[in-house]
């Protein structure tokens, strides 16, 4: 995937908790029912692309994260996602 600064990406973050949020997708209970595993879609903006196949992204609240470009949980945001979820990017 070819990314450059200013692109928007959608990251599927895997989480575990006793109470999944309303935006949780792919919810699976633990074997004994104590917790749930689920996926949350995160909408981030690419700040920098580094030579070592990593990128720096910024969250909606200003946090910065470094990710590997080939991560299977990340994909470039399409036109429809940018339109329908524009409030989640910024």
SSE inventory with pairings:
Layout: E1 8-17, E2 25-29, E3 36-49, E4 54-58, E5 64-68, E6 74-76, H1 79-84, H2 86-89
Antiparallel strand pairs: 1-3, 1-6, 2-3, 3-4, 4-5
Please mark out the parts with pLDDT under 50 across 5 or more consecutive residues, or reply none. none
What is the global morphology? globular
Assign the structural class, choosing from mainly alpha, mainly beta, alpha/beta, alpha+beta, or little secondary structure: mainly beta
Radius of gyration: 15 Å
Q: Give the termini separation.
A: 23 Å
Report on the biggest sheet: 6 strands, antiparallel
Number of contiguous helices = 2
Q: Strand portion, in percent?
A: over 45%
Series of H and E elements: EEEEEEHH
Helix content: 10-25%
How much is the average pLDDT?
A: 89
List keywords for this structure.
single chain; 90 residues; mainly beta; 6-stranded antiparallel sheet; 2 helices; 6 strands
